[in-house]
From TrEMBL:
Any one annotated GO CC term: cytoplasm
Domain annotation SAM-dependent methyltransferase TRM5/TYW2-type: ranges: 83-330
One annotated GO biological process: tRNA N1-guanine methylation
InterPro entries membership: MeTrfase_TRM5/TYW2, SAM-dependent_MTases_sf, TRM5-TYW2-like_MTfase, TRM5/TYW2-like_N, Trm5a/b_N
Gene3D superfamilies listed in its UniProt record: 3.30.70.2580, Met-10+ protein-like domains, Vaccinia Virus protein VP39
Record-level Gene Ontology MF annotations: tRNA methyltransferase activity
Keywords, in A-Z order: Cytoplasm, Methyltransferase, S-adenosyl-L-methionine, Transferase, tRNA processing
Identification of the protein by name: Methyltransferase
Alphabetized SUPFAM superfamilies for the sequence: S-adenosyl-L-methionine-dependent methyltransferases
Protein's UniProt keywords contain Secreted: no
Pfam families linked to this entry: TRM5-TYW2_MTfase, Trm5_N, TYW2_N_2
Length: 330
């Protein structure tokens, strides 16, 4: 059957396959084919492929064999379990220990590439927004996660990380232009900082969690951008004065309380700066509170233009996680 495929020379095959897999663009219903000395990798979204592979890609329609049906956890259980993938770990949220054990066993027996199964044992808590985990399979809570060509090592018991925001992080990273100076006020292990640096930006990432900053430095090294990343373990309100008027782009991904840090964001902003402000608000007015807070902090020193009002995801009943892309011009 003819399906959309990326056609690539064999020597570039593994790198191309890995980049497409990280972006979840490989069509798992079909096998990768070899014909005429070239590889044909089946894909789900030809338009998105060009962004992931920086436009240097040949997309063709080609006949490839269908993949044989894989065994899923649902095939082994009497129900369809809910789980989240993070690298080779599967994350579940089950209060019943017997049900949690059954799901873990099914995940391991299925064809999922999962070696670790972790069960959420608490809510996100504390200033560093971490949670407790029960290890149902595997050795520990450290995982390697890949998204859009970047690799992140992290320990879920020590740092906050959400794989669900991969598409949002890529949306923001695509806006970068060369030689920008980017500042992430709550950087974590680097899911914004690292792709920014890979696009050529000079980056500063600050986080109050010392372990997250250790992982940020390691992830910058893993991705070959350590020379463009400065990682600082501190409260960003203490750091901002050292980078006054510095930033061309600022990320504020602390949606429950980012408004408390807007004064520092204004300190960091250069003459022409893009601010990515994340918020969680009621669906009746998801963007208004954030916009009003930004204007109160930045005007009249800056002209404030809201360029994008973007809904990231549903957070809770009647509550939305949103992002405001705002241009500040002095």
């Amino acid at each position: 059957m003819d399906v959309p495929c990326v056609r690539v020379e064999p020597e570039a095959g593994e790198a191309t396959r890995a980049a497409l897999a990280d972006a979840d663009l490989i069509d798992d219903a079909y096998e990768i084919a070899v014909e005429g000395g070239r590889l044909y990798i089946p894909i789900t979204d030809p338009a998105a492929v060009r962004d992931v592979l920086d436009g240097d890609v040949e997309v063709v329609s080609h006949a490839v064999p269908e993949r044989q049906q894989q065994t899923t956890p649902a095939d082994l259980l009497a129900f369809d379990p809910t789980y989240e993938r993070l690298g080779e770990a599967a994350l579940i949220d089950e209060d019943d220990p017997d049900r949690a054990r059954a799901i873990a066993d099914a995940i391991l027996e299925s064809d999922l590439p999962a070696e670790t199964v972790l069960n959420k044992a608490s809510k996100v808590k504390g200033e560093t927004r971490v949670r407790d985990w029960e290890v149902l399979a595997g050795e520990n809570t450290e995982v390697v996660h890949r998204e859009y060509g970047c690799e992140f090592l992290l320990d879920l018991a020590d740092v906050y990380f959400s794989p669900r925001l991969a598409t949002e992080r890529h949306r923001v990273a695509e806006q970068l232009e060369g030689n920008e100076r980017a500042f992430d006020m709550f950087a974590g292990v680097g899911p914004f900082v690292v792709p920014f640096a890979k696009r050529g930006a000079e980056c500063v990432g600050v986080d109050i969690n010392a372990t997250a900053i250790d992982y940020l430095r390691e992830n910058a090294r893993r991705n070959g951008v350590a020379d463009r990343v400065t990682a600082i373990n501190d409260d960003v309100r203490e750091v901002a004065v050292d980078y006054e008027d510095w930033a061309d782009r600022i990320v504020m991904n602390l949606p429950h309380s980012a408004d408390a840090f807007l004064e520092s964001a204004v300190t960091l902003a250069g003459d022409d700066c893009t601010l990515h402000y994340y918020d969680i608000q009621h669906e009746d007015d998801p963007f208004g509170p954030g916009e009003r807070a930004i204007r109160a902090a930045a005007e009249p020193d800056y002209e404030v233009t809201v360029e994008t009002r973007h809904t990231v995801r549903s957070y809770a009943p009647h509550e939305l996680n949103v992002c405001l892309d705002v241009r500040l011009e002095r």
